[in-house]
Amino acid sequence: MDTLKLIALDEEDLQILSAHLQDAVLKVGDIEYLAAEKKLVLGANRFVWELAADGKRRRSFERRRSALLFDRVGKVQVTGIDRRHTNDILALLTISFIVTDAPSGFIELTFAAGKALRLEVEAIEAQLTDLGPAWETSFKPEHED
Predict the structure, then answer these.
(1) Is 102 helix (H, G, I), strand (E, B) or coil?
(2) CA separation (Å) from 31 to 1, 34, 75, 79?
(3) Total structural domains in the chain?
(4) Cα–Cα distance for residue pair 90/69, rounded to 1 Å
(5) Contacts of 52 (CB under 8 A, 6+ apart)
(6) Residue 119 falls within a domain, yes or no?
(7) Which parts of the chain register pLDDT below 70?
(8) Is 140 a domain residue?
(9) Residue 33: closest CA among 93, 88, 87, 75
(10) Quick check: is 142 in a domain?
């Protein structure tokens, strides 16, 4: 499977990134806000949904190390995440956008257990890139309806 490289420049694109990153896991220490550069970068182990959703019965699935970059970030607000606990694990549920004064708004990264990041952005500019080879996992994330 080829590595994934996606760019998001609008809300529809951001929904596609969110779908690929659903159930990604990362450590708090994998999040870096570069205020002077107006960037937020995070590294995550994403579940490869595009393979799992192909309809074939599988005994194993894949995860890949990926980088997610947000540009034009003016401010970051945190809910339920303690930056001092760099080894705490976060499970990403969704990424959404709330328009304030188009194209400006808030990008919200919602994690399990009520944790979240809220990015104040001038506009949506995000990139998702797989960084290396996949590894096997027998666990497929499941969600209640």
Answers:
(1) coil
(2) 27, 10, 14, 14
(3) 1
(4) 17
(5) 58, 61, 140
(6) yes
(7) 1, 54-57, 145
(8) no
(9) 75
(10) no
The residue whose two tokens read 């019965």 is 57
The pLDDT value recorded for residue 1 is 53
Q: How far apart are CA 112 and CA 18, in angstroms?
A: 14
Q: What pTM was computed for the model?
A: 0.93
pLDDT digits (tens, 9 = 90+) for 10-41: 999 999 999 999 999 999 999 999 999 999 99
Rounded Cα gap, residues 71 and 86, in angstroms: 23
Contact 33, 91 (CB under 8 A): no
* H or E, element range at 66: strand 61-71
The range of the structural domain enclosing residue 127 comes to: 5-51+62-132
Q: How far apart are CA 115 and CA 78, in angstroms?
A: 8
Strand partners, 44: 66
**Does residue 46 form part of some domain?**
yes
Task: Supply 97's token pair.
Answer: 């956008």
**H or E element that contains 68:** strand 61-71
Beta strands, E only, the chain: 5-8, 25-27, 31-34, 39-47, 61-71, 73-79, 89-99, 105-111, 116-121, 126-130, 135-137
